[in-house]
Amino acid sequence: MSFEYPQDLKYLDTHEYVRLDGEIGTIGITEFAIDQMGDVVFLELPDIGDLVTKGETFGTIESVKAVEDLNSPVTGTVIERNEALLDSPEQIAEDPYGEAWLLKVRVNDPDEVLDGLSADQYRALVEGE
């Protein structure tokens, strides 16, 4: 299977991504990670107004195979969470880089994303190149 690695994202080695638009970061989980997990059955996300911290856990994603922590690629305040995914977590596999984002965060320091992996670096990491 061939996975997508959009160039406009920054990635963590724990498979989360962030797309920065001004000071708003959209956080999600990569197609590769979702494929590895199998069918997602439960998602736990922070509340609006909560602070997420770069490199720290902000929630969990549970599949039939495992429960995995979700780690934040940026520090900031949650301004939106994907309520549709909380109701139907299996939909995350349908459009992980579009409609199936997890959180929108007002980022404290947009330069933080520069530490993230590029699409090519992430692809090399997960495909073992």
TrEMBL record:
<keyword id="KW-0450">Lipoyl</keyword>
<dbReference type="InterPro" id="IPR033753">
    <property type="entry name" value="GCV_H/Fam206"/>
</dbReference>
<dbReference type="Pfam" id="PF01597">
    <property type="entry name" value="GCV_H"/>
</dbReference>
<dbReference type="GO" id="GO:0005829">
    <property type="term" value="C:cytosol"/>
</dbReference>
<comment type="subunit">
    <text>The glycine cleavage system is composed of four proteins: P, T, L and H.</text>
</comment>
<dbReference type="GO" id="GO:0005960">
    <property type="term" value="C:glycine cleavage complex"/>
</dbReference>
<dbReference type="InterPro" id="IPR002930">
    <property type="entry name" value="GCV_H"/>
</dbReference>
<dbReference type="InterPro" id="IPR000089">
    <property type="entry name" value="Biotin_lipoyl"/>
</dbReference>
<dbReference type="InterPro" id="IPR011053">
    <property type="entry name" value="Single_hybrid_motif"/>
</dbReference>
<feature type="domain" description="Lipoyl-binding">
    <location>
        <begin position="24"/>
        <end position="106"/>
    </location>
</feature>
<dbReference type="InterPro" id="IPR017453">
    <property type="entry name" value="GCV_H_sub"/>
</dbReference>
<feature type="modified residue" description="N6-lipoyllysine">
    <location>
        <position position="65"/>
    </location>
</feature>
<dbReference type="GO" id="GO:0019464">
    <property type="term" value="P:glycine decarboxylation via glycine cleavage system"/>
</dbReference>
<comment type="function">
    <text>The glycine cleavage system catalyzes the degradation of glycine. The H protein shuttles the methylamine group of glycine from the P protein to the T protein.</text>
</comment>
<protein>
    <recommendedName>
        <fullName>Glycine cleavage system H protein</fullName>
    </recommendedName>
</protein>
<dbReference type="InterPro" id="IPR003016">
    <property type="entry name" value="2-oxoA_DH_lipoyl-BS"/>
</dbReference>
<dbReference type="GO" id="GO:0009249">
    <property type="term" value="P:protein lipoylation"/>
</dbReference>
<comment type="similarity">
    <text>Belongs to the GcvH family.</text>
</comment>
